[in-house]
Amino acid sequence: MKEWMKKLQLHYERIRSLHPEDRLMILFDIDGTILDMRHMILSTLRSFDNRHGTHYFRDLKIGNIRVHETNIVALLDKLTIREKDTARVVDWYEQNFWSADAVMESHRPFVGVMEVIRWFQIQPKTFVGLNTGRPECIRADTLHSLNKIGQEFKVRFGNEFLYMNRNGWEGDIVTSKVAGILHFQKCGYRVFACVDNEPENLRAIADVDAQKQILLLHADTLFKSKRKRLPPHAVSGKRYDLAALIHEKALPKHVQFVWHGVNDEANLRQFLASGIQWAECDVRLDHARDRVVLRDDSFESAPLQEEERLLTLEDILDPIQRTGKSVKLDLKENGVLIDRVLWVLRRHSFDGMNLWFNGRVDELKQEGFSKLTKAFPQSIIQVPIDCLVPLILSVPGEALALLDKFRSWGVNRFSMSWKSSNIHRVLDKLDKWGFEANIYNVPDLESFLQAVLLLPTSVTSDFNFPKWHYYGRGSGENQKRHSYEIVKTTQSLSL
Predict the structure, then answer these.
(1) Tens-place pLDDT, residues 325-343
(2) Is 0.85 surpassed by the pTM of this model?
(3) Residue 9 parent element (H or E)
(4) Weakly modelled stretches of the chain, pLDDT under 50
(5) What is the rounded distance in angstroms from the CA atom of residue 142 to the CA atom of residue 138?
(6) Which CATH number fits domain 4-35+109-245: 2.60.120.10, 3.40.50.1000, 1.10.443.10, 3.20.20.370?
(7) What strands, in cross-sheet order, belong to the sheet with 126-135?
(8) Regarding the domain delimited by 248-479, which CATH topology (the fold level of the hierarchy) does it fall under?
(9) Taking the domains of the chain in order of start, what are their residue ranges?
């Protein structure tokens, strides 16, 4: 089950290699595949309580719902409900389950599925279609609710990519699913995969796919038909795992990646051996020895430890240059530090195209940014704007005026934490205004891939991704670093 996303990745690459010019399409069912229908069940039942003054479903939790949305009676049988009310609940449920309010308020996607959809939507000549048993009469509500959900993930579903049951609520869903496949094929798409939670739907699709070019993926959630209806070559899975779907070599080429905290020898070795282009180093003055060193913490907040060996800026520039990589310098001070850094960079004949400076506005001020711009006009000059995120969303005109002011100082990229709320909206604003954007503070591989899918200009991470054999240690902030234990084993794994 863990491998269904990996199989999807391998199958997609194979079909693309065989048909490089074709328009490829992956088809998703909606209910039980994209959307966790338990939320709609719970919402509808609780609306009965609210309308009738009862408390039957007050303590009902999502985890307690283990029935398909069409088998509500089986759920009610397990609850303590007055016999005379059971029929009323069923009647209410059937009348309100597909209401516009229920569709809008209770739709919740399964974790990871929208990111998987986004991944395929940004691939060249690749399209995501929806093949649902829902009737045509709720087309508008379906598109509206799905696109509202998709905003956070930069996912959008077009009307032309939605196939619905043309025979109404009572129409045969299995037949409709097959008709959906044939419809998209007739429109010129090569359907390479179908994701559906109903075994009998996948069985019917397998019957019309004589060449077995369509990968059948069973979303192992709640389903009505029997599991034995699954075709033998179908692959089941419960988790939409981005890390299994996306490998390092498939990352977008136009997004820059930055290895955060290359402040020590171990991290430097890891970075140089990796496929990552940019190393971020924290730069400050060691006044005691009059040198530029790499250290996140200030000497005042965290005094130098006896066993602590500091790298200097000069220590890292030569190996970075020799390997054809680039350096991002997070300047922790203004004034003398900037002058010394610029002197070291000139001494090593560093090209501005391989330089990136980052600093806080309150630290470097206009003077510092202007000095960097004048010295290396082709470099990236970045400012973190986490404190401006609320302003960007609430008073965009004032925020734009501030960002334009920083741009006049030479700033050409703005950075925000992955933890910022509504980060997709902020990125949209920056893109609309013509600004480059960096996302930093990305903690793990799954979050990293989620950030990449938003397609910012750059992403900064510790790259502590054991799955990719990257063991980034972090910057050493508060004298803490990531650590890993290598466990030796003779056990062999087979799939």
Answers:
(1) 999 999 999 989 999 999 9
(2) yes
(3) helix 4-18
(4) 1, 487-495
(5) 6
(6) 3.40.50.1000
(7) 162-165, 126-135, 23-28, 189-196, 215-219, 235-237
(8) TIM Barrel (3.20.20)
(9) 4-35+109-245, 38-105, 248-479
